[in-house]
């Protein structure tokens, strides 16, 4: 493929507004691109306007290498703060601008280019490369969860998630557990608070207990300490009334040694304790749950990816971990176990930013890295 064709694919993909919940036009566009190069793909609907895409090249017999990415982006925020139209896909010097250029239409387009180049070369000779393009990664991971439920990773032998990693190979990332705690009290006039039950005051008690709820959790050798924060606190509607309802929201960055199930059980135990000790009632609600992912850094696939990158880029690819969750959190829910790593073009710190931009050189090199990984994985010339 000519570089101009590769760049045009990314530009057109950026020009499609795929803010979370509106991913289908991008899936349909990529299906047409793949079809134009003789590659069939399936659109797997999740809901109205939301469609995953799955495509394969290669033979039915042999190992399966998965290239995974997502179609959705975060919102642009205040578009007046952007110097460049968020959906322009404009190239200026060595950068292509637009929402999703880094997170992660650059990585996804590079994977599409890789599939096309493999098809043109008649590769792989023994095995398959499967592209998984999902909806809803930025919020709930429902797209990758649906593909997992449908068994589309059950035969996978290794996976690359194409998130931007600032030229590092991420072999592990923290999980993410979002929760809400609701506090129910009894309404009363503030002139006689003894007649009521103050839901805000009770919730403040939970806040204090939560600060030390995970003090005994030991750090993970790969991901470090479990990180927990209460980020939203809301209660009361009127200055002269004892509030009968309040809630808070929190986030826990989980580790394999103390995962989302363990965190939920710990928080539920705290809620049960307060319900037994205090007037009023507490209720725990799980808002979202992404499991931590960790591949052994000594795994053969990790070394293979590093060597493939060295072959293409002429430099080493250091190992790293991340505290952000990805679709890998959903794919590891399958009972079948396989190594997963994350590598893609772009600097992580550009994700979700105003005037998000990606180096054109990095983008054009990315599919060559993916292509080399596939060749090395299958042992093809």
From TrEMBL:
SUPFAM superfamilies: Bacterial exopeptidase dimerisation domain, Zn-dependent exopeptidases. Its cofactor is Zn(2+); Co(2+). Its EC number is 3.5.1.18. It is an enzyme of class 3 (hydrolase). GO terms for molecular function: metal ion binding; succinyl-diaminopimelate desuccinylase activity. This is Probable succinyl-diaminopimelate desuccinylase. It catalyses: N-succinyl-(2S,6S)-2,6-diaminopimelate + H2O = (2S,6S)-2,6-diaminopimelate + succinate. Residues 171-277 form the Peptidase M20 dimerisation domain. The lineage of its organism: Bacteria, Bacillati, Bacillota, Bacilli, Lactobacillales. Pfam families: M20_dimer, Peptidase_M20. The keyword Metal-binding applies. Belongs to the peptidase M20A family. GO terms for biological process: diaminopimelate biosynthetic process; lysine biosynthetic process via diaminopimelate. Keywords: Amino-acid biosynthesis, Cobalt, Diaminopimelate biosynthesis, Hydrolase, Lysine biosynthesis, Metal-binding, Zinc. Pathway: Amino-acid biosynthesis; L-lysine biosynthesis via DAP pathway; LL-2,6-diaminopimelate from (S)-tetrahydrodipicolinate (succinylase route): step 3/3.
């Amino acid at each position: 493929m000519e570089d101009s064709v590769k760049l045009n694919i990314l530009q057109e993909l950026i020009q499609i507004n795929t803010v979370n919940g509106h991913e289908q036009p991008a899936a349909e566009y990529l299906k047409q691109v793949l079809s134009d190069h003789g590659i069939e793909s399936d659109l797997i609907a999740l809901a109205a306007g939301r469609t995953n895409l799955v495509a394969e090249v290669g033979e039915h017999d042999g190992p399966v290498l998965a290239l995974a990415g997502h179609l959705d982006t975060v919102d642009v925020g205040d578009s007046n703060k952007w110097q460049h139209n968020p959906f322009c896909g404009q190239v200026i010097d060595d950068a292509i601008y637009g929402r999703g250029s880094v997170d992660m239409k650059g990585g996804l387009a590079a994977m599409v280019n890789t599939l096309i180049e493999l098809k043109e070369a008649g590769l792989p000779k023994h095995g398959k490369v499967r592209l998984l393009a999902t909806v809803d990664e930025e919020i709930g991971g429902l797209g990758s969860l649906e593909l997992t439920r449908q068994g589309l990773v059950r035969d996978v032998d290794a996976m690359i998630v194409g998130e931007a990693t600032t030229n590092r190979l991420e072999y592990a990332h923290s999980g993410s557990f979002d929760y809400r705690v609701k506090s129910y009290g009894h309404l009363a006039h503030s002139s006689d608070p003894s007649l009521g039950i103050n839901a805000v005051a009770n919730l403040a008690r939970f806040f204090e207990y939560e600060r030390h709820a995970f003090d005994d959790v030991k750090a993970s050798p790969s991901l470090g300490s479990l990180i927990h924060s209460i980020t939203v606190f809301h209660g009361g509607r009127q200055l002269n009334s004892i509030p009968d309802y309040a809630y808070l929201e929190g986030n826990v960055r989980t580790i394999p040694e103390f995962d989302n199930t363990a965190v939920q059980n710990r928080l539920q135990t705290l809620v049960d304790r307060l319900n037994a000790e205090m007037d009023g009632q507490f209720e725990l609600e799980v808002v979202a749950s992404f499991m931590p992912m960790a591949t052994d850094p000594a795994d053969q696939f990790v070394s293979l990816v590093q060597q493939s990158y060295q072959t293409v880029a002429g430099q080493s690819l250091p190992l790293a971990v991340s505290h952000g969750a990805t679709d890998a959190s959903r794919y590891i829910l399958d009972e079948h176990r396989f190594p997963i790593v994350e590598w893609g073009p772009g600097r992580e710190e550009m994700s979700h930013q105003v005037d998000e931009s990606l180096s054109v050189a990095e983008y054009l090199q990315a599919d060559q890295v993916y292509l080399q990984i596939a060749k090395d994985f299958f042992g093809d010339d």
